[in-house]
Amino acid sequence: MAAIPAGDPVARATGVVKRFGALTALDGVDIEILPGRITGLVGPDAAGKTTLIRILAGLMSANEGELRVLGGAPGEDLEDLGYMPQRFGLYEDLSVIQNLNLYADLRGLPTPDKRATFDRLLAFTDLASFEDRPAGKLSGGMKQKLGLACALVKTPRLLLLDEPGVGVDPISRRELWAMVKELTGEGIGVLWSTAYLDEAEKCDAVCLLNDGKLLYSGDPAGLTERMEGRVYLARSDQVDRRPLLRSLLDNDAVLDATIQGSTIRLLSAGGERPQIDGVSLTPVPPKLEDGFIEILGGGPKGTSALAEAYTTFERSGQPAIEAVGLTKRYGDFTAANQISFTARPGQIFGLLGPNGAGKSTTFKMLCGLATPTEGQCAVAGHDLKHSGAAARQSLGYMAQKFSLYGDLSVRQNLDFFAGAYGLAGGAARAAIDKVVDIFELGEKVKVNAGQLPLGYKQRLALACAVMHEPPVLFLDEPTSGVDPVMRREFWVHINGLVARGVCVLVTTHFMEEAEYCDDILLIYRSEQIATGSPDDLKRQAAEAAGLDDPTMEDAFIALIEASHIDTRNPRKAA
Amino acid sequence: MKGELTRFEPRRLAALIRKESVQILRDPSTLLIAFVLPMLLLAIFGFGISLDANSIRVGLVVQDDSAQATSLAQALRSSPFLDVEEDRTVPALRAKVVADDLRALVVIPQDFGASFDRGRPIPIQVAADGSQPNTANFVAAYVEGVYGSWAQQQGLVPRGAQVGVNTRFWWNPELKSRFFLIPGSIAIVMTMIGTLLTALVVAREWERGTLEAMMATPIGMGEFIASKLIPYFVLGLGSMALCTVLGVAVFGVPLRGSVLALLAISAAFLIPALGLGLFISAATKNQFMASQFALLSGFLPSFLLSGFIFEIGSMPKPIQMVTYLVPARYLIPSLQTVFVAGDSWGLFARDIGMMLLFGAIFFFLAFRATKRSLD
User: Fold this and answer.
1) Which of A39, A116, A571, B136 is 20 to 30 A from A229, alpha carbon to alpha carbon?
2) The pLDDT value given to residue A39
3) Candidate from A60, A83, A98 with C-beta closest to B213
4) pLDDT for res B178
5) In what order do the strands lie in the sheet with A472-476?
6) Best CA proximity match to A51, nearest among A209, A205, A204
7) Do the first three CATH levels of A11-223 and A228-303 match, i.e. the same topology?
């Protein structure tokens, strides 16, 4: 893949162990970063990616293992190291050019070279017209690029990028990737850490981390090839896609299955083609994620214990969520403009858009946490303005990030949320026992929520949101950061609940998760730019951009570009 | 890491100082603490709080028509320390004492004049509001003083029979408390800038992750510490200068010592103040904790245990011992001397020495706590 022959590694680590108290963050990890290559460091949150990068940058010391970075111990040669931490390391009060100047002086860029270097970097990052703007007033994507430029003021030999793709819209992410790709042409060795497996697929080499352990190291194609001939698109004329997904996941011949448009993408458990009645299979090329799932032991079972025990809601004609012309302005800044949609019972409705697009604002208006400047919204037939309490009682809310009480035990959190949703006495006890059982929290009830592993935190958060069995569920980026198996497990619950007539409103930035939705609303820079089913959106994108069989991300980018919103011009800071 | 403190390059330091200065100028809260807070403090201490008692409002009831009674009442009225309101009966004025309108009630009783004629004078009555003991004491003493000198003038008491102490207060003859309060507020402001502000800005770099990015560049931690030290040192001195100019020009505080001495003392105090701030931020790495620790270990001791408001000599012995650990304790006496008395290099040298000693200790701790590591 790389045109430049690989030389000696710019960094190499073998058997790295790092412990924080009782927790082992890295457990015998090996990695090699070659010049002129992008090495992907891939894994879910808390896999140990940031710890490994910090050790390579000399910011942390390893408990065990051999490390050689730029020909010495980590941290010895800082002149040739470029490092972009997760939060960019930019000074928000300083302008773009002041930030560049600072890093140029700190890294010892010869003064006569400054102007030429800055011009080149500003052109490269497309920031030339924002030279005097304070870094704090840049959009997420522009901050990312400036962070990269600061790490590049003096061309490094090793560039460490800690999740540069997080929180950035897909367009900026692609631009950033193209820039870094260009750098490898100059012989820079790049370490790119990411939680997105589709991003990892494009790397020259990947190190797959999970729970501090190295699961795979090498060419991403190597991992994908192993899955060759085991991945199919399943279609059935008799069964709807969700019941089909459920039966496929419960089938022992199937290791993993996910929804893709109106079809199901499945990974067979063995080498041979599974024989399933009434289902036609079309072979498709495997992806990195298939390999990852196989290493992790396959997807979950298809039946949700939660849904089995849940109330069944009637799918009457009445919409579960209705928004009409929702607009929110903060001063002269419009955070959401004229958002209108309807979601029915038994439907998954997805709100998609990059960070800061207006998803959260829309969410807040729908839960009654923010009052719309204009427009109306109703949940389960209750108008938020006039009967907000009744509307809130009929919805369950799982907030983005972990919003439970970290200092309370699992049981205390459940008690609290049961009370908050108006469950008392026997009803509360029954509801709590039920979710403890369903989410297998039994062993953890006395543990403080803050100390739970990520997957359990997410289960607990869902448990708290559904205890009172609401007909409407609001999930704000529910799966961000968790590993793919946990994510699938989560979606099994959601699919089950939807079959019971629950309406689920969800936001996500995993494009493959958008496939689970029945309907999607695309929000970009506060505007609603497209609506429709995943297949509809792909079709619209294919027409708009002349694409052939676009992925969800391709569709997303094409629709944004077709929306005639100037993507170069950042909006005012929120 | 080896050579961490010796790694030094003027260009990197200059770049860091430039960055810090831009941040100071762009951050309104920094300027607020450095320049608005001193003005506020001076205004409060200069106009609002005063530990002196001038023209205290008292009620006077004269129940006697004799010449002596009239003359004493006149003497009370003309005292510069008392602001007298008269009435014929006690109840009306008592209500005003209760309403906090008057601080005390003076009654010249019936038969006052006649009792002098009989040679056995009856005493006048002073009822002071005990809920404010300080003022009550002042009132009682003032009235007593007026009465004593009036009696002498009248020849009612033989001259010399009453032996009085003639007190003179040097340097601050009128015992104006603002003479002490202005140097005190300089100490407070410099503690705020040196300890609180410094602790906050370094903790902010930890919180925002900017320090993480800095540590991956070739800077030495010595350069980093110096880049925080120098701008806030200058800011602290600037704020001190503002306090001094305002104190002298607006509040009429004398500056009897030399500017050089004032500068030397202030600069010496900034060393422990900044050192403590750097140590706190490196040890806590979080703005909330840093501000709590800075208040507890910097601001409150400077306020309460430095002799600024409460005289150290009148504290219980164990507390007096504790004050020796408060750097501001060495600042206040020297500052007061420089303003009100003049240069006394013997005293200054001792205090400056102590402050530098504390500075050295805090800096040692700060350097040890500031590591190029996220462990």
Assistant:
1) A39
2) 96
3) A83
4) 64
5) A382-383, A374-379, A321-330, A333-343, A527-532, A519-524, A348-352, A503-508, A472-476, A395-398
6) A209
7) no
SS3 A147: helix
Chain B residue nearest residue A102, CA to CA: B15
pLDDT of residue B2: 44
**Nearest-neighbour CA in chain A from B24: distance (Å):** 9
Q: pLDDT tens across A12-62, in order?
A: 999 999 999 888 999 999 999 999 999 999 988 888 999 999 999 999 999
Q: Which residue of B has its CA nearest to A161?
A: B213
Backbone angles phi, psi at A82, to 5 degrees: -110, 130
> Which member of B1, B23, B213 has the closest CB to residue A85?
B213
Read off the pLDDT band of B55 (50, 70, 90): confident
Q: A133-147, B49-63, B206-220: which has the minimum mean pLDDT?
A: B49-63
Rounded CA gap, B80 and B75, in Å? 10
Identity of the residue in A85, A94, A98 whose CB atom sits nearest the CB atom of B212:
A85
Query: Does A394 reach chain B within 8 Å, measured CB to CB?
Result: no
Which stretches of B23-171 are assigned E, i.e. beta strand?
A: 56-62, 82-87, 104-108, 125-128
Sign of torsion, CA A366 A367 A369 A371?
positive
Using an 8 Å CB-CB cutoff, list chain B residues near A108. Answer: 9, 11-12, 218
Q: A102 vs B212: CB contact, 8 Å cut-off?
A: no
- Collect all residues of chain A within an 8 Å Cβ-Cβ radius of residue B2: none
Q: Which amino acid is at B180?
A: F
CB contact under 8 A, B372 and A84: no
CATH number of A313-394+471-574: 3.40.50.300
Would you call A57 and B218 a contact, using CB atoms and an 8 Å cutoff? Answer: no
Give chain B's contact residues with A (Cβ, < 8 Å): 1, 9, 11-12, 14-16, 18-19, 22-23, 26-27, 208-210, 212-219, 372-375
- In the CATH scheme, what is the code of domain B56-153? 3.40.1710.10
Among A50-64, A485-499, A507-521, B114-128, name the one with the lowest average pLDDT.
Answer: B114-128
**What residue in B sits closest to A90 (Cα-Cα)?**
B210
CATH architecture observed for domain A11-223:
3-Layer(aba) Sandwich (3.40)
Contact A106 B374 (CB under 8 A): no
**A87: nearest CB among B208, B216, B218:** B208
**Domain assignments of chain A as residue spans, ordered by start:** 11-223, 228-303, 313-394+471-574, 402-469
The pTM of this model reads 0.80
Task: Assess whether pLDDT exceeds 60 at residue B3.
Answer: no
Q: What is the CATH code of the structural domain delimited by A228-303?
A: 3.30.70
Q: Chain A to chain B, count of Cβ pairs less than 8 Å apart?
A: 83
CA distance B3 to chain A (A): 11
Q: What's residue B171's pLDDT?
A: 55
pLDDT band, residue B330 (cuts 50/70/90) = very high
Helix (H) or strand (E) holding A31: strand A23-33
Q: What are the sequence ranges of the domains in chain B?
A: 10-49+176-369, 56-153
Torsion sign, CA atoms A524, A528, A534, A538: negative
CB atoms within 10 A of CB A556: 28
